[in-house]
Amino acid sequence: MLVRAYLPxxxxxxxxxxxxxxxILTFNNAVLFDLLFIGVLxxxxxxxxxxxxxxxxxxxxxxxxxxxxxxxxxxGDSNLTKFVIYPSCIIISFYxxxxxxxxxxxxxxxxxxxxxxYWLYEDYQAPQIYWNMTLVAITLISRNxxxxxxxxxxxxxxxxxxxxxxSINLDWIIYRLYGLSLILQIIVILEYLIRHLFGASELVLFxxxxxxxxxxxxxxxxxxxxxxxxxxxxxxxxxx
Length: 240
Hints:
Blueprint: H1 2-25, H2 30-47, H3 52-74, H4 79-95, H5 100-121, H6 129-147, H7 149-161, H8 169-197, H9 205-237
């Protein structure tokens, strides 16, 4: 009984410490961290394969993470790329405008697009803001897919697996973490614009610190996925 009572807290502390250590140790090795992230997703999906709600969250994260990696590999640095990305970002943010984050991104998209046109006219060597814009767009889509996860799960999986889709705590944790990541990326974009428009070359606070913040958010995401999934399974596993 004593072990059963304290096992969830012990597991939370143990794996929390392990994931924090992994996030720190792999900071200079993005590929290794990505493999760790995907490994946790796959492992959790396997042990929670009968939990339609956890599986739904993991599927959304995995698909969007894969799309982000593919985009990074094949996204070229050209004016054509920018002419595709900026209108796409504006369209996405307008479509999702019921989300306060999308409204902010809509204004940022218009500002960044106008600035890019100005730089093109002035033949200025513009920074690669389009990649940050792409990250924000992917994060915004992910955030709203998580928000609509229950209805999506009911539509595509409930009838197949004959299980009830419901909102779980993991939905809201990931939803908020996506919001935090999105705001951070928007701040980085604004810092880029200010630095290059006003010649403030010393303004690089978020340029350098954002990598640490994003890694911290990703590490928390890994821990949350594993921890919340364990909480879903623990009551079933510890039954007398």
